[in-house]
Amino acid sequence: xxxxxxxxxxxxxxxxxxxxxxxxxxxxxxxxxxxxxxxxxxxxxxxxxxxxxxxxxxxxxxxxxxxxxxxxxxxxxxxxxxxxxxxxxxxxxxxxxxxxxxxxxxxxxxxxxxxxxxxxxxxxxxxxxxxxxxxxxxxxxxxxxxxxxxxxxxxxxxxxxxxxxxxxxxxxxxxxxxxxxxxxxxxxxxxxxxxxxxxxxxxxxxxxxxxxxxxxxxxxxxxxxxxxxxxxxxxxxxxxxxxxxxxxxxxxxxxxxxxxxxxxxxxxxxxxxxxxxxxxxxxxxxxxxxxxxxxxxxxxxxxxxxxxxxxxxxxxxxxxxxxxxxxxxxxxxxxxxxxxxxxxxxxxxxxxxxxxxxxxxxxxxxxxxxxxxxxxxxxxxxxxxxxxxxxxxxxxxxxxxxxxxxxxxxxxxxxxxxxxxxxxxxxxxxxxxxxxxxxxxxxxxxxxxxxxxxxxxxxxxxxxxxxxxxxxxxxxxxxxxxxxxxxxxxxxxxxxxxxxxxxxxxxxxxxxxxxxxxxxxxxxxxxxxxxxxxxxxxxxxxxxxxxxxxxxxxxxxxxxxxxxxxxxxxxxxxxxxxxxxxxxxxxxxxxxxxxxxxxxxxxxxxxxxxxxxxxxxx
Length: 618
What we know:
- The protein is an all-alpha fold.
- It is built from 22 helices and 4 strands.
- It has helices at about 30-50, 75-90, 105-130, 140-155, 175-180, 200-220, 225-245, 245-255, 260-270, 285-305, 315-325, 340-365, 370-390, 430-455, 455-465, 470-475, 480-505, 520-530, 540-555, 560-575, 585-590, 605-615, and strands spanning about 410, 415, 420-425, 425-430.
- The strands form 2 sheets. The chain has a two-stranded antiparallel sheet.
- A hairpin with a 2-residue loop joins strand 1 (about 410) and strand 2 (about 415).
- Helix 6 packs parallel to helix 9 (about 260-270) and helix 14 (about 430-455) runs antiparallel to helix 17 (about 480-505).
- The two termini are about 50 Å apart.
- The model is unreliable at about 1-20, about 165-180 and about 595-618 (pLDDT under 50).
């Protein structure tokens, strides 16, 4: 007597009605419980190994010769071991840790173990290279390397979190490649295991931004060379671990419910950075990051909201910087005037606005690549014009290649930005003062961007970006609105250019190129918008921070910087084409609708996000 399987006769018990879903097995043939116990024990051993000396010499950056006192890159290994252990214990069902893995319990362990192994073995390799061989390792170094390897091997024995998509049940089960290619894809979240009241969610937001400030400060303060590279390797692999666990998605959902609180917490955390620094060595990097991020947010109005490809946007930054330099009392200024800061700020923004209108009016009737070529030409024309206004080949306005130097420090209401000041008991030096000023400027630009994106004009920009022909058919004046976006983006760039001129104290044409090894330039600005996520509020800020900080800390790579930058962009386009912090529309273009359980950052009110998602599903 034969029986007919409940699944329609294919004989596959895994597809029988009522059967629990089966997960693809791990890469290594280990029992799941045994693999989890092995991973937990090895992660604990990895963290404990940082209490041992890894080398006998203190010549390696970060003295790793002490017992019981982790230092330098040992702290990275310690953090990786603890993170892996926590994720593993959550998978074992330890009470109170289930909230750590709302989306998956196995993939986070794999990525955390990989991050720990990569950082640990990189440290051991750097010791061998810098000090002349593995003979310079103490027993603690070998213990750390072996424990980190055992942690990864145990994690490879865990099954995958997700089964194959519908319609792809046949064929071999996905292995390690499936786990890694899905590292940055949206992941569905389970029902929250821990429901928090509103005040609890606000505390979570505050803690998250406090942790972000600590991680950023640690990376900025890390010495150039192996310490920063090790930090970068660990963060690049630890972030996917947090993503696959669902913690980033859960935090995104919480910040979407408390958007105003989240913005306030972000600015408070950012304003706290100068108070963690004893000198101006890295505060100037923070000030330049904010300038770069503000300009990128202005470009996001043009590219992200209106969909206009502008390849010469850095010229508007230059217009604002030159305008401010000419009216800020520099002895080399051809005008010989000294405006107060608020007047210089308005002058730089107004000059960029005028140039934006003058350039946009005749060119914005073009579309696509043609518009991009024209804007690229404008950027180069501006740079060459500043070179030739030197009194020889043209009027004496900008001093040519010498630029306008000796721009005096700002003084607002008796507060001299060129002097150190005691704020809350902490000494804030010159660049710390300008950093705090840029926090205020960035907050203003963020406010303008949010209000513009949520307005009728912002919705019209998005309609033009998605389908200009349909937008015109619905009665939208495409040319007028595109010109408005161009002018607003130019004004925001000029605003940042005013502060940029006072921070660098010298404005020269070479600072405003289309491409170069360091930002700000048009290529890096466009990359920051695309890397972070077009059309979002926080995307360009994150993209600009990454693109400025990483080149500033990797000067020792010299000519290889652009090679690594290109490789990073290729990997990003392969695994995260919508950007690091995309809006909902971009995710709908690249991923299945059913996966988008958490609305990403769009810069728009939640009502508009819901409308966009409903229309896409319809």
